[in-house]
Amino acid sequence: SPRAMAAPSPLPATLPEPFQRWFAARGWQPHAHQMEMLEAARAGDSALLIAPTGGGKTLAGFLPSLAELAESGAGGLHTLYISPLKALAVDIHRNLTQPIEEMGLEITVETRTGDTPQSKRIRQRQKPPNLLLTTPESLALLLSYPDAPEVFQRISCVVVDELHALYNSKRGELLALGLSRLQAINPALRRVGLSATVHDPEVLHAWLSPEGKAGDPRVRRVLGRDGAEPEVEILTTRERLPWS
């Protein structure tokens, strides 16, 4: 779910009005890295966000797309979200739908995985949602159809979640090929990577770069703050519990 820290200070003026009201109603203030991601998008830059779990990465990744759609009201497929797990895509769909409805935004969100009915898959190609949540394999199938250039002609952004778990695998190579194809369809495509803390961020930076360069200035590197400390409780019993 979207994470934000409580704060009494005024909300940033760069947030669209519906978002300011939504944050204020909860007594929340956006994290600095969430606003940095918004600034990067408005400059047309790609971005790599590295932040610990619980630091609001998901909202940071989607905030620029939601703000742009709220301001422009553009139709068609705007943002593609890639998850390594279809279950995660379903969770993100649920977590996105609530704030979109609460803000009264006319933004459509759908998932496309191996469980998506055939009738829905066909309809998504004919009339895609604004935000499509999918997996590397489903993206590869979408790109294999003859009408792929029409489906993705308006795409502005691709958000790759859990990048640290994807980039150095065969699925990561498949996804890299898919991103290259999307970039050919729309050269202005922005790439956004969301990752937990990694030992070598240069590798992820290079993976996101269309040129494969770690120092590519078109990819901003954003570091997120720590999230809330976890609260862990363990129940005790009077009797001994056998490990078996």
Give keywords.
globular; 244 residues; alpha/beta; 41% helix
What would you report as the Rg, rounded to the nearest angstrom? 19 Å
User: Uncertain runs with pLDDT below 50, 5 residues or more?
Assistant: 1-8
Strand order of the largest sheet: 5-6-4-7-8-3-9
End-to-end Cα distance: 36 Å
Structural class: alpha/beta
Order of helices and strands, N to C? EHEHEHEHEHEHHEHEHE
Structural summary, described in words:
It is a single chain. This protein is an alpha/beta fold and 244 residues long. Helix content is 41%, strand content 15%. It is built from nine helices and nine strands. The chain has a seven-stranded parallel beta sheet with strand order 5-6-4-7-8-3-9, with helices on both faces. Strand 7 (157-160), helix 8 and strand 8 (190-195) form a beta-alpha-beta unit. Helix 2 packs across helix 3 (57-72) and helix 6 crosses helix 8 (170-185). It is globular and about 65 Å long.
Can I get a quick summary?
The protein has 244 residues and is an alpha/beta fold.
Structural topology:
Elements: E1 5-6, H1 17-25, E2 28-29, H2 32-42, E3 46-50, H3 57-72, E4 79-82, H4 86-102, E5 109-112, H5 118-126, E6 131-134, H6 136-144, H7 148-151, E7 157-160, H8 170-185, E8 190-195, H9 201-208, E9 219-223
Parallel strand pairs: 3-8, 3-9, 4-6, 4-7, 5-6, 7-8
Antiparallel strand pairs: 1-2
Helix pairs in contact: 2-3, 6-8
